[in-house]
Structures are given as structure tokens and as C-alpha cells.
Amino acid sequence: MALPRELALDPARLEEIMTTQWNMRVATVGPGTRINLTPMWFGWGGGQVYFYGRGQKVVNLRRNPVCTILVDRHEKFPELQGIMLQGQARVLETAEDEAADPHLAAVRLQMGRKYNGGHGQAPVPDPGPFAASARGRNRRWVVLAPDHQVSWDNTRL
CATH number for the domain including 46? Predict the structure, then answer.
């Protein structure tokens, strides 16, 4: 059953949620048919979701790039708002791939500001960009350019 169109988030509200919420959940297909579902920090740029991941998520996406990302806010059902994005993720394998991405530099700045002090340390006035880069075998930036999107705003019920 599809959600009624009148429950969808308007573009401004969708943009606001995607740039201010701290956590998303990314679902990848693990070994065999198991789903690997993981909360992650993320950035939003050019209509795409960016995250810096390591380990099993990256291994899974190299093997099968299909993934689903969910970003939501509020706990109580009448206030719940969310965005589900589906598509094929792209792993940025090298520093050259990162440099060639037209939105990654802006996303790094966005994430540097958003997560400033996020590990319990005191925020700094100008945190600079989220500086993570490709390293080792499985620490990589991942980009999802969604080919399917569903959103809902239960305040409209």
C-alpha cells in the first residue's frame, strides 16, 4: 500500500530534516540474504546522501550496491516525520574519486558543523570540514543518489 501523496513532506521540510537530523539508518544486504541495518552520521548534498563508513557496510555495498536509508524525527506517532531513500550506493574508493565528486567538499563542511562536539568534547567556533578520507581496505565515503523516495509527515493526519 502506498502512502497518500498529501502526507508527503514538502521540499523545504525535507531539506530541513536532511540537513539537521543527526542520525540515519542504512540497510545493506549482508552475506547471504541477511540485512545489515546500521545507524550512521550523514551529510546531504545535491539530493544525495553521503556517509563515511567502514567495515561490513562498505564490504556489503561493494558486493551489492542496493541499499535503503531512513531518516526520521520525533518519537510519537502523531508527530513522526520521515524520509526513506532507496537506490544503488557508490563507494568512493580513492582520494581521486572523492575529489571528483561535485558535492563532497560541501558535505564535509556541513558535517563538520553538524557534528561539532558530537563525541562529548566542547564545540569549537570553526570546526572545519569532516576530514575523513579513503584509507585502509574498508574506510570509505559512500554516496546514495536515490532512485526512489517516500516521505511522510504524520502531523498532516
Answer: 2.30.110.10
